[in-house]
């Protein structure tokens, strides 16, 4: 039998185009899988990594976070998967720095505890939109204690329950998701709602339906000049006992201004952000930044993802926009990602 050959889209140094070339064939260590990738997704983080080399620990680098494909090799101690299984998974080059842990390759190593079987009815291109956003969403919602996102910046600790496969009663908790049409914002909406949380989303008017499809109970227009007052009024009217706070999936000076104005009117709460939060927050605001690689997501990967996908409770949203087939298409996809997307995830098929 011919030995498989690997290829990758390499970053030779910061701020240069990716170069497709041969790569060592990875092997699965204990607790790991090697996945033969059929689809990979692109994230804004990839553009930052390419431009600045941030998080790169070893040059040349292979990065990328989302894979979908077939299990090619199973490491010792792994019980849940076998060769040939269709899976989605979160590749963690971001923290390990190892090139074999980057998604932008034909074969990628992923931790088995950050993988789940993809039901046959779901295509690889659809499934690959889930992994990184899912882990980010669990990091937003379910940490019980603040950890360290980066030196001097704490992670948020909203302490909300994991999503449930059952229909759970409304918990009376209310969360604002700023950026309800983004990949991380929409996934956070889905998981929060599946834990009984009432989600109020902020999104573009053209994405109201999309946010509602993810489970948001109410959506407000990001461009409405009365945004702050409308959101506060909606929460007051609900009369629900537990306002949790805001997840800001956009995290710009503009959104921070709105966040702090809303929290000031509501008497404080959590402010969970995808980037470092504002430093000058009042004492009644618990601000933090997520770091989306965390063992907290392991039970969700293990017990929730596959049955929830099967039942349609977890939807592969935002839908993929396929930018091409082959590793050569990643560079063009990253250019598109930098230009910005609306309620979609850019995907390259292999
Ligand atoms: N810290 C971490 O661990 C971590 C993990 C994952 C992602 N991130 C960061 O999180 C951010 C989001 O990533 P993503 O992949 O979810 O992004 P994305 O899907 O590419 O975000 C695009 C969406 O954001 C919406 N949007 C843009 N500006 C907005 C605003 N002011 N108000 C409301 N919605 C707005 C757009 O809506 P329109 O259609 O209206 O334009 C669009 O639908 C990125 O900066 C990424 O680097 C951080």
Question: Short summary of the structure?
Answer:
This protein has 350 residues and is of the alpha/beta class.
Q: Count the helices. How many?
A: 10
Please describe the biggest sheet, giving its number of strands, its sense, and whether it closes into a barrel.
Answer: 7 strands, mixed
Ions and ligands: NADP nicotinamide-adenine-dinucleotide phosphate
* Unreliable stretches covering 5 or more consecutive residues: none
The proportion of residues in beta strands is 25-35%
Number of strands: 17
CATH topology of the largest domain: Rossmann fold
When the domains are counted, the total is 2
Q: What gross morphology would you assign? A: globular
Q: How far from one another are the termini?
A: 22 Å
Secondary-structure-based class equals: alpha/beta
State the order of secondary-structure elements, H for helix, E for strand. EEEHEEHEEHHEEEHEHEHEHEEHEHE
- The overall pLDDT, averaged over residues, is 97
What is the CATH domain class of the largest domain?
Alpha Beta
Q: What oligomerization state is this entry in?
A: single chain
What is the CATH architecture annotation of the largest domain?
3-Layer(aba) Sandwich
Query: Helical content, roughly?
Result: 25-40%
Protein name: Enoyl reductase (ER) domain-containing protein
Family: Belongs to the zinc-containing alcohol dehydrogenase family.
Organism: Coleophoma cylindrospora
GO molecular function: oxidoreductase activity, acting on NAD(P)H
